[in-house]
Amino acid sequence: QVQLVQSGGGLVQAGGSLRLSCAASGRTFSNYHMGWFRQAPGKDREFVAAISKSGDTDYADSVKGRFTISGDNAKNTVYLQMSSLIPEDTAAYYCAARGRFYTRSYTGYEYWGQGTQVTVSS
User: Fold this and answer.
1) Shortest CA distance to 101 belongs to which of 68, 41, 65, 54?
2) What is the DSSP track for the chain?
């Protein structure tokens, strides 16, 4: 098993940047595909970005070129660097881990962080 603890997030003006962190304990996160998802009020949870066990990255079209996912094996932590934020990025953000084959579907992820709010003001 792995436990995920998130940090970061908050309120930022449009055009600004934020970094989210997701620290894993238990098994090292290199044994998992790590994903970031978000959920806005009244909407379904959606895929944002992921980094596979092999280090390949994947992004939703809506964030490509603005967000960067990365991992630090020494710290057992995954990051989501968010830049050029827009109000539509406002949501609760969740990191998640999956041990089996890679997928963008949030239903396939077994372990979840507690979530952190990101609010982008216009």
Assistant:
1) 54
2) -EEEEEEE-EEEETT--EEEEEEEEES-GGGSEEEEEEE-TTS--EEEEEE-TTS-EEE-TTTTTTEEEEEETTTTEEEEEE-S--GGG-EEEEEEEE-SS--S-GGG--EE---EEEEEE-
Closest Cα to residue 112, out of 43, 30, 34?
Answer: 34
Splitting the chain (122 residues) into consecutive groups of 10 residues, what average pLDDT does each group show? 94 98 86 96 96 95 98 94 98 95 91 97 95
Token reading at 90 = 């406002």
Q: How far apart are CA 2 and CA 92, in angstroms?
A: 21
